[in-house]
Write a structure and sequence with these properties.
Rossmann fold, 13 helices, seven-stranded mixed beta sheet, five-stranded parallel beta sheet, globular, alpha/beta
Length: about 400
């Protein structure tokens, strides 16, 4: 009887140990994005964001784990990203994150798939914070890839719905970076506008090299010559900051419908002259209530910089929730828990859709205007802000998927 009681106690003790196995563990996340070249300011901000949020979540989270961030410069190159992935694996990393450049993301997805297939027991999870090519959760979808930003088609679905109710918009110029994301912005703009506002004319279209153009004056001259009253662009980083700078200098007074107005450099380039003319579609904006205020203000106080990659908050929310549910930090068990996971995020109800691992979340249209009492946060101390003008619940901007996910 004593032995039986001891055996039961041993089993229960083992169960309790297993149930809390992840508590106190350190989880390494390798950040693989640019820290050199024209996009370095964006990469630097995002690495600081990830490190800052790790410190915040290390103060306490549902899984009881600690996070360690390893920053790796990929120079915005797919080839260099694969070298850095190997470096991360050599350091025992099982979780990676990247987001600047869908071409880079595509290369990483392929590499992670091959690694996981060949190395059972050493699987890696790819946490995509910002690479938004729809193919990544459609034809190229992967069980090991989870996207936390809304993809290009989701954002264009929201943006075109907003434009539909703006009768003053009649002629649009499409100006985008010449890689998968920019090409997809142009594609989905034409598709959704022809469906919702067939009277709108696309009066010009250009694709320019990614992170190489230093003077956008020739492009703005073409926009003005076309008679366009608006520009749709998925540009980000220096490619958007220099574009709006050229537009201001050339006296172009049309509207801009963008994806990344709030990103480093663009607020300063916009200045006060663009008030009421520049719109952004995104899963967040600077003047959100709730948890974003805490992180936004804490980041500003620590770095005198602006926190705009809110998808990283969702990464930590989902990771810690899934690890707590799985009672493990093992990527195989955590991926299974993240598959279809629902949680309350910084911008409302969120779901990591199990069919394609595309996060379903609320999207916002905001407009560039003077900061005021209602919307006081001023990025880059410009005295301006992005004020919300339209909210789209997850079901509105959600798009179907063709993903045929290969389960492990």
């Amino acid at each position: 009887m004593l032995f039986r009681k001891f055996g039961i106690a041993l089993v229960l003790g083992s169960f309790c140990l297993a149930a809390t196995a992840q508590k106190g563990e350190t989880v390494k996340i390798a950040w693989i994005d640019p820290l050199s070249g024209l996009m370095a300011p964006v990469g630097s901000n995002q690495l600081k964001t990830l490190q800052y949020l790790a410190e915040e979540y290390n103060k306490g989270n549902a899984a009881g784990v600690k996070f360690e961030i390893i920053g790796l410069d990929n120079k915005l190159s797919p080839a260099e990203s694969l070298n850095q992935l190997k470096s991360a694996m050599d350091q025992g990393v099982r979780y990676i994150t990247q987001g600047n450049g869908s071409s880079v993301a595509g290369a990483l997805v392929d590499a992670v798939n091959k690694h996981n297939e060949r190395n059972p027991g050493k699987e890696i999870i790819f946490l995509n914070h910002s690479a938004v090519d729809p193919d990544l959760t459609n034809s190229k979808c992967s069980y090991w890839h989870f996207r936390f930003d809304a993809d290009t088609s989701m954002k264009m679905e929201a943006m075109s719905t907003f434009i539909k109710d703006m009768p003053e918009v009649k002629k649009i110029y499409l100006l985008n970076q010449n890689y998968s994301h920019g090409q997809q912005v142009a594609k989905y703009a034409k598709e959704t506008l022809s469906r919702k506002r067939p009277d709108i004319q696309i009066v010009g279209e250009d694709l320019h090299p990614l992170a190489q153009v230093r003077d956008f004056a020739p492009y703005i001259a073409k926009v003005k010559a076309s008679g366009a009253d608006s520009v749709i662009t998925g540009n980000w980083g220096s490619d958007l900051a220099l574009l709006v700078k050229a537009a201001n200098e050339a006296g172009y007074t049309g509207k801009f419908f963008t994806y990344y107005t709030g990103v480093t450099g663009t607020p300063t380039a916009l200045g006060t002259g663009a008030a009421g003319r520049v719109y952004q579609v995104a899963y967040a904006h600077y003047n959100m209530a709730g948890p974003m205020v805490k992180y936004r203000d804490g980041f500003k106080a620590k770095f005198n910089d602006d926190l705009y990659t809110g998808s990283m908050i969702s990464i930590f929310d989902l990771l810690t929730g899934a690890m707590a549910q799985a009672k493990s930090t093992d990527p195989v068990k955590v991926a299974a828990a993240m598959h279809g996971f629902k949680f309350k995020g910084f911008n409302g109800d969120m779901e990591m859709r199990k069919y394609d691992h595309q996060l379903q979340q609320t999207l916002f249209i905001s407009v560039w205007q003077k900061a005021d009492k209602k919307f006081p946060y001023s990025p880059e101390s410009t005295g301006m802000t992005l004020a919300p003008v339209k909210t789209f619940e997850p079901y509105v901007s959600s798009t179907p998927t063709s993903c045929q996910m290969k389960m492990p």
